[in-house]
Amino acid sequence: MQDAIHDQLATARRLLVSLRQAFDAGASALAQCCVTAGKLDAIKLDERQVASFELAWAGADLLAAETGVAAIDADSPTLASRLALVFAADGIASVLDRLETIYLEVDLSLTPLRALRDDAAWSALRRAAVGAQALQAAGLEVARSDGEVGPTALDEPHAMAQDAFRRFSQDVVAPQAEKIHRHDLTVPESLLQPLREMGVFGLAIPEQYGGSGPNDREDTLLMVVVTEALSEGSLAAAGSLITRPEILSRALLAGGTEEQKSHWLPQLAAGEPLCAIAITEPDHGSDVAGLTLKGTKTPGGWLLNGAKTWCTFAGKAGVLMVVTRTNADRSLGHKGLSLLLVEKPAYETHEFEYRQQDGGGVLTGRAIPTIGYRGMHSFDLNFENFFVPDANVVGGEAGLGQGFYLTMAGMVGGRMQTAARACGVMRAALRAAIRYSADRKVFGAPLATFALTQAKLARMAARLATCRQLAYSVASLVDKGEGRMEASLVKLLACRSAELVTREALQLHGGMGYAEETAVSRYFVDARVLSIFEGAEETLALKVVARSLMERALAAPATVAVTPATKAVMPGHDPASISPVSAST
Q: What pLDDT score was predicted for residue 286?
């Protein structure tokens, strides 16, 4: 059996090499359609959005399949090998379909794609990897695994952290998650305080500033491991708590004054105050360059006037990182933006009004009712002549106009966290589906004994295992200062996968899956937000992933390849083309 699986893996690797060549040709041809004077043209890119979207998704599926099979060696468990093959087979089929759309769009000959489709080895691999018998065999192993799929080889510190936070998630978070979701409560201190004590809010903050992160490097893998574990208990009540402090702390580390770092970072690491990020505006989601919240200079500081929306945890937070237009010249775009830190009391309520003393300004907030992701709440905010002192401009005078770039400093980590959140939700959904399928009897037999159930479990597990493998691999890239595009790519793939996996998990529960009293219904509605925030799927695919792939193709059209070792940003790339977020974070 193992020999047959290793032969199939060898076939998959050979096919993926050929598919990578076809992908590179498509990326290069599409890039040539979008250039003016040797550089990508924004207008031409917009004219090719459909093909660009397909390119981004083809790149995501291809890199994930490559990463999945590359992780398998002679010592890998049979289940890991089976799942890598399942995703590879499904991924190759998907990439072929997407590349055909691109080839037709740019008038490339379909001959290379047809040759791959007609390859007898491809037909044999599909039968062996995702034929009915193969999926049943994989599904049976998944059922016995209780959802323990994906990377397991962690060093001792990361393994200990994973174990500790999984136990906390299971014992403390999960028992409170349903009540928080069904009654639309704010995340309670019964969760926040123990997380403070575990140091979770300081994971991205160096020890020298009171955090638990290394002083000389980043530890993105630890952030991924912890976020994934907490998200398994609840996305909204625990899994998303550390995204905001990471974004703000990285902005401070990138451009804050030493006084600001010494003042704010120890507080953020301690979780006192909690923080929120205010970027999105009612008329400007992913178009950060168009933000209009106005900061007007006044003696000693700035007066804020305008609105923000989808500001997650704004009620409970004691400080808001507000992206503000401090230069009235709208033609400056993103170069006219700065980061201001707005201090306010913490509120448990879904609405608040904060009036500054001595006739100062007013900040009002209202939680936006949502179908899921309840607990942290995303707020509409309105500022009226709200005063912010000069000391709260990140970077001081030198920070004016740097708000976009400072915000971007935390976005790669934020997207990695979102991929980890997706993996945590998928793991919870898969485990729920496995257990329900074993207990539920239909037509006189356990649901888990039916071939279609086993096939569903196999494909759900393959997506989870591959997304986890990709997230863990990209985390190592990010820690080297690379992987900006790959972080966006894994976020793109993992978030869509979370929707698919939770949908299937709910479906396997039948009518009970649609009941709010069943946890899988919460996983389903929570997963839906993942493709929207931290870069909406469409913006991320078009403005970051596809653009980066085409820039790489232009830089090295004959040899370009996206691998875990590929540099993240090519020379000449305009960072302003990257959208930090869309909607809540």
A: 52
What pLDDT is attached to residue 513? 95
- Average pLDDT in the chain: 91
Cβ atoms of 31 and 52 closer than 8 Å? no
pLDDT tier, 581 (very low <50, low <70, confident <90, very high otherwise): very low
Are 266 and 209 a contacting pair, CB within 8 Å?
yes
Which among 574, 585, 394 is positioned nearest to 484, based on CA atoms? 574
Distances (CA, A) of 103 to 26, 106, 117, 226: 6, 5, 15, 41
Say how far apart CA 553 and CA 55 lie, in whole Å. Answer: 12
Average pLDDT (260-287) is: 88
Domains contained in the chain, CATH given = 275-407 (2.40.110.10)
Beta strand 362-367 with 351-355 is: antiparallel
CA pair distance 224, 250, nearest whole angstrom: 16
Residue-by-residue DSSP string for 462-487? HHHHHHHHHHHHHHHHHTTT--HHHH
CB 178 within 8 A of CB 172: no
Count Cβ atoms within 10 A of the Cβ of residue 411 and give its class: 0-12 exposed, 13-18 middle, 19 or more buried.
Answer: buried
pLDDT in tens, 405-414: 998 887 888 8
**Residue 282, number of CB atoms within 10 A of its CB:** 12
Using the 8-state DSSP alphabet, how is residue 561 labeled?
Answer: -
Token pair 């020999």 in the structure block, residue: 3
Sign of CA dihedral 44, 573, 39, 289: positive
Active-site residue flag, 534: yes
Distance between CA atoms of residues 56 and 550, nearest Å? 10
At 486, list the tokens.
């790959």
Q: Contact at 8 Å (CB) between 365 and 379?
A: yes
Residue 360: its pLDDT value, please?
81
Contact 79, 138 (CB under 8 A): yes
Contacts with 198 (C-beta within 8 Å, 6 or more apart), sequence order: 164, 165, 168
Mean pLDDT of 180-189: 94
Please name the residues in contact with 115: beta carbons below 8 A apart, sequence gap of 6 or more. Answer: none
Range name among 25-39, 284-298, 311-325, 516-530 with the lowest pLDDT average = 284-298
pLDDT in tens, 362-391: 999 999 999 999 999 999 999 999 999 999
For residue 70, the tally of other CB atoms under 10 A from its CB is 16
Higher-scoring residue by pLDDT: 481, 51: 51
Question: What is the distance between the alpha carbons of residues 562 and 487, in angstroms, rounded to a whole number?
Answer: 13
Residue with tokens 């044999």: 124
Q: Tell me how far apart the alpha carbons of residues 161 and 165 are, in angstroms, rounded to a whole number.
A: 6
Give mean pLDDT, residues 454-466.
98
Query: Catalytic: which of 54, 534, 537, 551?
Result: 534
